[in-house]
Amino acid sequence: MLSDEDRTQLKGANNDKELKKTFKSIASYNPDQFFPTEELKNLGYTRKQCECCGVYFWTTISERKVCGDPVCSGGFQVTINNPAKVKLSYIGVWKKIVEILEPRGYVPIKRYPCVARWNPTSEFTIASISAFQPYVITGEVEPPAKKLIIPQFCLRFNDIENVGLTGSHNTGFVMVGQHVFVSPEEWNQGELFLDIHAFIIEGVGLPKEEITIHEDSWAGGGSFGCSLEFFSRGVELFNQVYTMFEQTPDGPRELSLKVLDMGLGQERV
Ligand SMILES: [Zn+2]
Q: Residue 177 in contact with residue 129, Cβ under 8 Å?
C-alpha cells in the first residue's frame, strides 16, 4: 500500500506529530489508495480543496468552496434551524446507533469503568478506545467482539479550570464508540465508512448537504493511519480513524491487527 518513496518519507518522521503530518500529505496525494473514494463518489460527494486552509474535503454541494472547519465556514451555526430531521433524546442516540449498526454486524457491549485499572498507560478512561488499550490493540488480548459499539463514559481533566465558568467545559461525557479489530484480509474500509454514514443520514436524519467530510490523518503511540472528519455547520461531529500502520526503527509497516477508532459525543448528537 505504501510506495518506497512513502516509506522513506515516513521513516524520517521522528515523532507522532511529524508522522501525522507526513502521512496526511501522502494520503491526500493519493486519495484512492487511502480513503473510501469509491463509496464517497457513489453517495454523490465530490472532492474539493478548501480555498481558505487548503484541506481536502468532500461535499455534495457543487458550489461549496470552503471546508467545514468553523474558521473557514464562518463559525458555529447549529442553533439556527436544526438540520437534523430525527429528534433524538439523550438515551435515544445510543438506542438509534444500536438500531442502525447491530444489523450491520456490530455487537453492542457494556461500558467499561472510568478508572482504567487494566491500562498501564492511562489512569482514566478518556475515550471509548481506552477500554481496549493497550492489550487489545497490540493483539495480546482478544476483543469482546471484532466489530463492536460501546457507550463509554469518559473522564478528562485537562479543562478542569474552566468547568463552571464557561458553561461549555466539562470533565465527563459519554463517547459512543464504533470499533473494529480485524486482520488485513477482513478489513473493509469502505464498509466501515458506510456504516457510520448510515447512522448520520438515516439515524440522525442529517441531509448529505449538511455534511462536509475532511481528509485527515492520525498518529499516536507510533501507530498511524488516515481519518475522515465529519463536520456539520462548523461543528466536528466525529472523526473516523483507520489505524493501519506502525512506525518501527526500520520504517513503517502494516499492522497485523487493523483498528477502527470512531468516537462520537453522545451529547453532541
Ligand atoms: Zn478550510
A: yes
Going from the Cα of 85 to the center of ligand 1, the distance in angstroms, rounded, reads 26
Cα(210) to ligand 1 centroid in Å equals 16
Q: In 3-state terms, what secondary structure has residue 202?
A: helix
Taking the centre of ligand 1 as the mean of its atom positions, its distance from the CA of residue 47, in whole angstroms, is 13
**CA 211–ligand 1 middle distance (angstroms):** 14
| Separation CA 261–CA 149 (nearest Å) | 10
pLDDT at 24 > cutoff 80: yes
C-alpha cell at 162: 474552566
Domain 15-26+35-50+84-233+256-265: give its CATH architecture: 2-Layer Sandwich (3.30)
- Mean pLDDT is lowest, of 84-93, 177-186, 210-219, for 84-93
Over residues 120-129, the pLDDT tens digits come to 888 999 999 9
pLDDT bin (cut points 50, 70, 90) of residue 132 is very high
pLDDT at 79 (0 to 100): 63
Ligand 1 centroid – CA 51 distance (Å)? 7
Distance from residue 218's CA to the centre of ligand 1 (Å): 18
* Residue 59 CA to ligand 1 centre (angstroms): 13
In the predicted model, what is the mean pLDDT of the chain? 92
